[in-house]
Model the fold of this input.
Amino acid sequence: MTETTLERTTAGAPARRGGSARLAGWGLLVLATLVAAQVYGFLESPPDRDMGHLQKIMYVHVPAAWSAFIAFFVVFGASIAYLWTGKAKHDLVAASAAEVGALLTALTLALGSIWGRPTWGVWWTWDPRLTSTAVLLVVFAGYLALRAFTEDFDRRARWSAVVGILGFLNVPVVYLSVRWWRTIHQVQSSPSTVDSAFAWGLRVNAIAFLLLTIYFVRERYRAASMEHELAAIEEERALGGGAGV
Done:
């Protein structure tokens, strides 16, 4: 290993350890907030007249969908920023947000199926809302697969940015699908559209999921930055950049 490489890998170690400790602390705080929000939503709201306690899936299903939309908006903005500036940090932010958004979308679909089975009588139906959400998940699963199978960083970042921008265009379609087409899915839920008995539970869980999304994106970005730096160091070593120690 060259002296320059050794200095680069060790100089930031104390700061990274301090940053890891802070992020771990934030992680515990976010987890506690999420648990408290779920307990509050479940205990403070009465059973729904028609669905009973099953309705309380809303406290995860709806905030997960909202947070996924936010994550994909971050992908959209960071992808544009990468194409504009060519800076690696924007690509890494987009990739990190895409992973979190895809995870939340999968959670949204899974919970929607669990909710739909006793409500609609089926696990799945080709409803416009469900179908457009499934397409959104497939697009961003493809985004992540593209990144996994493209080794050249610049090519991967450019192609991913294009897919990320185009993929985000489906988010308004998902959101507005229940208004544009006849659908068995109800119109979007929000604190202003649900009964006041459920509104605060939805609000606090939306905040908790937003904090969780921010935390996950930050953690994934931190890991991706370290992976990118390590890859650059390995490339420098492979090219023989400097005298061996």
Observations:
- The chain is about 80% helix and 0% strand.
- The domain at 3-238 is CATH 1.20.120 (Four Helix Bundle (Hemerythrin (Met), subunit A)).
